[in-house]
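Lab notebook, page 48
Experiment: co-folding of the full assembly
Goal: obtain a model of how the components sit together before planning crosslinking
Operator: M.T.
Materials (sequences as entered):
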Amino acid sequence: MWIWRNLLFALDSAWQNFWRNAAVSMAAVLSITLILLLAGVSLLVGHALGQVLDTYQQRVSVLTISVADDTPMAAAYDFADQLRARPGVVSVRFVTKDEELSRFSADPRNQQLLEQLEGNPVPAKLEVRVAALSDIGPVDAFARQWRGVDRTDPTDYQGDFVGNMLRLRTWLTIAGLGLLAVLTVASVVIVMNTIRTAVYHRRQEIEVMKLVGATEWFVRGPFVLEGVMTGLIAAGLALGILVAAYRPFVHAFQSALFFVPLTYDPRFVPVLGSDLLTAGTLLGALGSYIGVRRFVRL
Amino acid sequence: MVIAPDFGPPSVISFEHVWKTYPNGTDALRDVCLSVPAGDFVFLVGPSGAGKSTLVRLLIREERPTRGSLVVHGHDLGTMGRRRLPWLRRTVGLVFQDFKLLPRLTVLENVMFALRVLGRPGRAVERHAREALETVGLGGMARQYPCELSGGEQQRVAIARALVHRPRLIVADEPTGNLDPVTAWEIMQLLLAINADGATVLMATHNRDIVDLVRRRVVAIERGTVVRDDRSGTYHVDLAEPAVRAR
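Observation: model returned without errors.
Model output:
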């Protein structure tokens, strides 16, 4: 019961204090809203990029292994089974020489070449689909060691493209984490200084509280709640702006850059919402916690 | 030799060879020895800068003693951790020269505030606060704000706030310092009544008239040292009528 009473007291104090220092509180809310907007935009860009990468990944995550003409069919099937047993391999399909020739013939650019050739010069293939782009390298190395592989042109995949995509994703993740760290520090400093101002405004009240026997956390509680309140209001504002702008922005982007497969994903909105609200709460709590630990002592 | 057992009231405050040295090297208190039994009324007198305020700050553990032992209500304040401080302060009622009332709260809310921060239930808080205001004679002013009251009335509110959680010790630092003589005497009467009800009172003061009129225990401090401890004393040493020494 007393916990409930203390919580009500802390909430009431935090709410009153938020509005009593309305100018400082609103400045903090707006600053953190901007920071969370930046964080939200980077989350959305990250998600959009992820969507684009996934689309490209589906296209390039296939490795083709050329089978030498003298390799017995049984050995090829046996190797296909070995590939299927490898982690990261989603599917393996055997393409016969005839099937591959008809696929080759279907391309009009190859017609002139086909007229000059006799028999079937194209090798049979094993088409290996992998789960992640990073799985292609090991599968390629494994295939090149197989006796039945065609030594003139053992494997084929878009190696450079795959490598570049993997590097891009790594660099974007590092840049995102760096940006996140900078934004976190900035938010914590802003909340900390807001709390410092609030502590200064309420110094009389704090002094009386201490002298009549309030516990340290009874005095600190309202300030931490005020920080959480600041973070939550800022997160709500940032979320509202992002949700309102997301769909129109994607539509505008699609009409300007139609070749980039970017789509509006409504399933990402709740994820964005929970991420921003959690971030706002944690940033507010962390900033105010550090603030009260520094400025409110018995 | 037969040592007679001491059946006197237990000490509420006990200073044993207490020193307080500030970081700049100033000795604010030097080898203070002082014992205040339960139910006592003690005037702490001395010139400005003598160490009275330091002694009061030590009593509420705003400062720690540098050396020696200081025990209040059985708690050694030299070794007491920060977490236990609130429980010490709940046993002490504090009254200050500048009242320390919260200007945006009414008289009743100011007194209730002291109980609310202790997490007491709402209805009991209001009942106890009204009782405390009745005790100091301000029952009819509950809804007024501190700025609407005279200095004496504000000090009464501060005393009501100090009393409301029923402390066993009242520490008053210059409670009559900002008041005219008549109002100061009214406040003094109030503190004496509280003492008569069983609370121990320690009052730091410069008010010579009151000390000389009331004739209670007087502890005089000069340059951080207790120079006089009279059981029924005056503000200055009374040469014509030597006071009975308490120690």
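Interpretation: Chain B touches chain A at residues 60, 82-83, 85-90, 94, 100, 102-103, 113-114, 116-119, 121-122, 161, 165 (CB under 8 Å).
Next step: discuss with group before ordering constructs.
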